[in-house]
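Minutes, project check-in

Agenda point 3 was the complex the collaborators sent over. CS summarized: two entities, 555 residues total, and the question is how they sit relative to each other. Sequences were read into the notes so everyone works from the same version.
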Amino acid sequence: MKDQIISLIAETLQEMNQSGEFTYETDTIQGDTPLYGGIEGTLDSLGLVKLIVAVEQGIQDRLNITVALADQKALSQTRTPFRNVNTLADHAINVIGMAAT
Amino acid sequence: MKATHIQFMLDRFQSHPEDDAIIWSDQRFSYGWLVNAVQDWMRQLDEQQVPRGASVSLEADFSPNAIALLLALIDRDCILVPLTSSVEQKKPEFRAICEVEVILEIDGNQLKTYQTTGVKASHPMIVRLKDAKHPGLVLFSSGSTGKNKAALHDFVPLLEKFKVPRHSMRTITFLLFDHIGGINTLLYTLSNAGCVITVNDRSPDAVCATIEKFKAELLPTSPTFINLILITRAYERYDLSSLKMITYGTEVMPESTLQRMHSVLPNVNLLQTYGLSEVGILRSKSKTSDSLWMKIGGEGFQTRIVDGLLEIKAESAMLGYLNHESPFTEDGWFKTGDAVEVDGEYIRILGRKSEIINVGGEKVYPAEVESVILQMDGVEDAIVTGAENPIIGKIVQLQVRISTGETLSEFRSRMGVFCQGRLERFKIPQKVTLVTDDLHSERFKKLRGKDGKN
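CS then shared the predicted structure for the full assembly.
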């Protein structure tokens, strides 16, 4: 499942890169590729919103599960789940798990 | 039989007895026929003892007898409640709001139902009109924000503006019989002895075929329908050379749609109209056929802009809502809720204040975004709305119908590239959904409401 989510995130970042939204070497996207927050994060809030919405739609399409990845709980965590590809994937799996139960 | 309120119309009809008054189902009905039909209905209403001043629902579409009966009911001081099949489910509710005393239903061109309901109208505004022996008109708002509001008009000031003779045209009645635009088109055309050309099928091909066949000169319609004419290229299949003017209103026109229409029909005047159920239709003048800037006003109307929003004071304004508190300020101004831009004496409608999307503090008007998206190859229709988002408050959400067969991801990527340099970044839709259904209502208006209701 995690591989699936990571490739979904990577594909979305590639798509955003094509439209000039995300300026990262996309063929090197890995688990520790930084996304949002901290010094390394390359997305601003608008870019983050786009990524999250697209990943949510991807989960809906591929797994047929409706999820909200950016709820108040996710936003209030001290260490943001959106800091890199890995943490976002873990967060998504967590939310999917809760949605499934 | 001498008429009271509509005598000026009958006089005009009588001076053009041979001219076409109405085209219905490919048949021509002359003004001579119409005078007789109105007088015949006046007699029948007498015989049936329909009380003067009764609240009457006229359930019909544009047909010769529906039109003649409408005029006869006006002359009988009735409170007229036109209802069409587009509100079929809501008819019982609407009749109750208007305290309808008599139901008249015209099916095709024949009277199908004549029914007294046993109700006695007692709403103070209705009683006031009755006592003054003034006919009335009730128009329902589309209810995009929930409940449909019933705007009650005094027909006497509404008719006043039609007494000034103006240029007559052969006009398609595209807007519906129960819509302020539809009623306005009908009364304008008849009182100037123009020809009312009715359409049963409101598809682009059927409407263009009717324009060709009956040499229509004026098509009053909506931006959504103009977009449909463009997508289907119906203008290539019919001879539209009789057409002199297309008027558009009821929703914001995307600039790109206007410019495309102007380029395919360069000899047709494109004129924006502005009106509301509550205040009636203002006189308007577009700067040019490919411009969204227009002047509005005319005799009996005053306009002002307060905090970027348009307000109107009209002599022919409604008396009030039958089912809602009065929306007028103490000195009689109506707040339209339309955000406008001003340039000298011209204004440009940006959109409904309630539809502005606030993306992290920045304002986005749906029409501006739609106008850009509609320029992309393979985009057939587009609707932009706001969606809640916990990170930046609201996001720009696009529902789009495409003919390219692209996946969501492919389309999103192409859209991102296309919008660069055309839209500021926060205006580029953050959420995109591909749809296959029509994105408009039966009234050819974009469905923006929650769950697609408008």
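Noted in discussion: The mean pLDDT of chain A is 85.
Follow-up: revisit at the next meeting once the mutant set is ready.
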